[in-house]
């Protein structure tokens, strides 16, 4: 393979600084001043063996003439390439190889890039280890005068050579790869990153993507899907059953928000951080591995085997030059990508503290070994962890269930809790899907879009920069004020705090939704989808309380509140003309539930009102009502089922010892609990006989033991 043209593929782990390389040199004799013929430099500084002047006997005192027309320099960079994890042989560790890039090949690859290098393997001597002065003097002493004379005579016969200057010893060689071209392994050679400084919006560095006409047409066809958000979510980890809300959060994380800079050049991050807390065997690691393998720059690591230096950066000494260099960690390797950390709860506290700056400021500051630098870590963090004790305790708040400090918890935009619940329908569906995957492989799951089309759509939408509209700003402010008010009135402050970071999270999620719909502006309908996802995320955190009103399906909100936007200017003008003919409605005139019942599409809000107040009761109170209702229906049996009014009347008789004000509150609670049980599918309302009205039944697959946890 040495000297043959081939290609290698791997991940860049470290790059050196670009240095000048002497390719051809002309030397001047220090004794007589005669200039030598051009001398090639074969990977080693090589001087002419003797002066050209026959009368001059100089053989060692020469000086390079850098300004001579025939002296040529070139750019040179050393790149360390690590073997791709998918190509590692069984029982082996990832191998590394040093790449030598020249001229146009320098500064093409960055740490974390997956590249394909075309060139040829070469063998170079370990010159750096052989140039020690003490060792050279020792070798020269061991040589006799006759041997030195023979060596000088042989040098005159063989011409210019650099390796002869090392003396007589056993040379050690190493394999390198001389790269002629370096390309992106993901096939996206048209992608380029530029720093765009916009004085109007202070946009930070953004990524621009060029698409061919065929690819652009494919993206437009995907954008015209009837239920785009649901279709894209189904493409996220299609082998995992359900967890649609978690998949939607991961989809928005892969797209990300819009990074900005303030007038003081302070960066505002646009990347979205997500944390998944779940019981064992709830597919947390599968989510992380899928995301790491489907983003352009994804790094997967385990928390127990990761240290602070391994996550951020470390200072090492270069073997050739002896200079101290910075070696990138996992967060730097996933710059402009996603860093997936599994077993986040197994990390030491001092190692968790090391990622504080990277999660919020998106930088890594290092000051050690005489090096003081601030490095970029513009990455999204996806963490997965198990609760304390291996099982999530519903009776305790989130902070009592996870081994995580409050500062890190507040830096996550979305947190999901996945509880392993026993359900006949869910267990059967999971078993059926797993068996079909074992039997048919990838053919068992057919997502709406192929993996290549899905990645193309994400790569294009990541480059978009939607702007917030005034109506969306008012809606976000109203929702944030309502969340702050409920945080001060309810018991949720013991679980999490609604801070300014939550407001920025809503903005980032809204921008990500607008990107998915290829919209130039962040519309109120996009904000509503982000708010519903945020409410779903927050509702899973506090299982000591149950929210009875206000939890909607973000996919229903998206399908009803977002219209298919035009793909060209003519369609955009027609859409605007149609919107002018339809009277607009404010967000305060009708709630999202009423809009679903009326079957109308959400329109742009001119003056949105604050969101409606939610009804929240304690989990003990909620499960107490549920257990009484279930016990009543089980005692009556299917032969004598009650109606909803009869069931409510019976319950109010059971609590008739309460005072008047408490009875009014309890009446509202029992109606909302029955409504929630109907929505969750725990109860069924069926008309048995015509004219007798609808009767209440327990779902046959309902497990009443779940409510007692």
Automatic annotation (TrEMBL):
Reactions mediated catalytically: ATP + H2O = ADP + phosphate + H(+)
UniProt entry keywords in alphabetical sequence: ATP-binding, Cell cycle, DNA replication, DNA-binding, Helicase, Hydrolase, Nucleotide-binding, Nucleus
EC number per UniProt: 3.6.4.12
GO terms assigned for molecular function: ATP binding; hydrolase activity; single-stranded 3'-5' DNA helicase activity; single-stranded DNA binding
Location in the cell: Nucleus
Record-given protein name: DNA replication licensing factor MCM6
Compositional bias annotation for Low complexity: 567-584, 601-611
All copies of domain MCM C-terminal AAA(+) ATPase, residue ranges: 228-434
Short name of one Pfam family: MCM
Main location: nucleus
A GO BP entry: mitotic DNA replication
Recorded GO CC terms: MCM complex; nucleus
Region (Disordered), start-end ranges: 565-611
Function, as annotated: Acts as component of the MCM2-7 complex (MCM complex) which is the replicative helicase essential for 'once per cell cycle' DNA replication initiation and elongation in eukaryotic cells. The active ATPase sites in the MCM2-7 ring are formed through the interaction surfaces of two neighboring subunits such that a critical structure of a conserved arginine finger motif is provided in trans relative to the ATP-binding site of the Walker A box of the adjacent subunit. The six ATPase active sites, however, are likely to contribute differentially to the complex helicase activity.
């Amino acid at each position: 393979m040495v000297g043959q043209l081939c290609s290698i593929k791997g991940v860049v782990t470290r790059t050196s600084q670009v240095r000048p390389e002497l390719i051809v040199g002309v030397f001047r004799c220090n004794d007589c001043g005669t200039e030598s013929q051009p001398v090639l430099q074969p990977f080693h500084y090589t001087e002419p063996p003797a002066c050209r002047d026959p009368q001059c006997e100089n053989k060692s005192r020469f000086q390079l003439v850098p300004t001579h027309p025939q002296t040529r320099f070139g750019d040179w960079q050393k790149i360390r390439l690590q073997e791709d994890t998918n190509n590692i042989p069984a029982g082996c560790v990832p191998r590394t190889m040093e790449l030598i890039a020249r001229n146009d090949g320098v500064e093409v690859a960055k740490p974390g890039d997956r590249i394909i290098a075309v060139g040829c393997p070469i063998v170079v001597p370990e010159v750096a280890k052989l140039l020690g002065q003490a060792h050279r003097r020792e070798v020269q002493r061991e040589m006799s005068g006759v041997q030195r004379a023979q060596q000088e005579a042989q040098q005159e016969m063989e011409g210019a050579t650099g390796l002869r200057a090392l003396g007589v010893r056993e040379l050690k060689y190493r394999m390198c790869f001389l790269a002629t071209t370096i390309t992106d392994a993901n096939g996206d050679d048209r992608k380029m990153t530029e720093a765009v400084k916009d004085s109007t919006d202070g946009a930070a560095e953004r990524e621009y993507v060029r698409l061919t006409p065929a690819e652009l047409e494919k993206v437009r066809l995907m954008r015209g899907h009837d239920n785009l958000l649901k279709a894209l979510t189904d493409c996220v980890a299609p082998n995992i059953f359900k967890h649609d809300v978690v998949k939607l959060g991961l989809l928005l994380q892969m797209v990300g928000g819009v990074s900005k800079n303030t007038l003081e050049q302070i960066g505002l991050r646009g990347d979205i951080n997500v944390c998944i807390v779940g019981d064992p065997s709830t597919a947390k690691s599968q989510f992380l591995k899928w995301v790491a393998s489907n983003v352009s720059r994804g790094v997967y690591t385990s928390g127990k085997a990761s240290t602070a230096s391994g996550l951020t950066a470390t200072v090492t000494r270069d073997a050739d030059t002896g200079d101290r260099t910075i070696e990138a960690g996992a967060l730097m390797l996933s710059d402009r990508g996603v860093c997936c950390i599994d077993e986040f709860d197994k990390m030491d506290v001092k190692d968790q503290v090391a990622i504080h700056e990277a999660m919020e400021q998106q930088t890594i500051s290092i000051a050690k070994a005489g090096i003081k630098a601030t490095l970029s870590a513009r990455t999204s963090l996806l963490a997965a962890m198990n609760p304390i004790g291996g099982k999530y305790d519903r009776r305790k708040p989130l902070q009592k269930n996870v081994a995580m400090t409050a500062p890190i918890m507040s830096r996550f935009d979305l947190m999901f809790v996945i509880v392993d619940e026993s359900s006949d329908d869910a267990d059967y569906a999971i078993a059926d899907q797993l068996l079909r995957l074992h039997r048919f492989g990838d053919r068992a799951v057919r997502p709406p879009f192929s993996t290549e089309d899905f990645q193309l759509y994400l790569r294009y939408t990541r480059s978009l920069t939607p702007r917030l509209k005034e109506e969306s700003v008012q809606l976000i402010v109203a929702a944030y004020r309502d969340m702050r008010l409920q945080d001060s009135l309810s018991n949720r402050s013991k679980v999490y705090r609604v801070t300014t970071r939550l407001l920025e999270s809503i903005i980032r999620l809204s921008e990500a939704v607008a990107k998915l719909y290829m919209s130039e502006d962040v519309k109120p309908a996009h904000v509503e989808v982000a708010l519903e996802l945020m409410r779903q995320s927050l509702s899973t955190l506090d299982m000591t309380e149950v929210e009875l009103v206000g939890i909607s399906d973000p996919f229903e909100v998206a399908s009803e509140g977002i219209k298919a936007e035009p793909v060209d200017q003519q369609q955009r003008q027609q859409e605007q003309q149609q919107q002018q003919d339809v009277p607009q409605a404010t967000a305060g005139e009708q709630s999202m539930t009423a809009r679903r019942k009326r079957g109308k599409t959400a329109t742009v809000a001119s003056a949105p009102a604050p969101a409606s107040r939610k009804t929240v009761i304690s989990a003990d109170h909620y499960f107490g009502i549920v257990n009484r209702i279930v016990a009543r229906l089980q005692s009556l049996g299917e032969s004598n089922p009650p109606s909803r009014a009869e069931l409510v009347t019976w319950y109010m008789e059971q609590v008739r010892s309460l005072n008047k004000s408490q009875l009014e509150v309890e009446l509202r609670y029992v109606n909302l609990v029955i409504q929630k049980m109907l929505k969750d599918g725990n109860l069924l309302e069926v008309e048995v006989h015509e004219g007798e009205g609808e009767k209440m039944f327990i779902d046959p697959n309902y497990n009443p033991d779940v409510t007692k946890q």
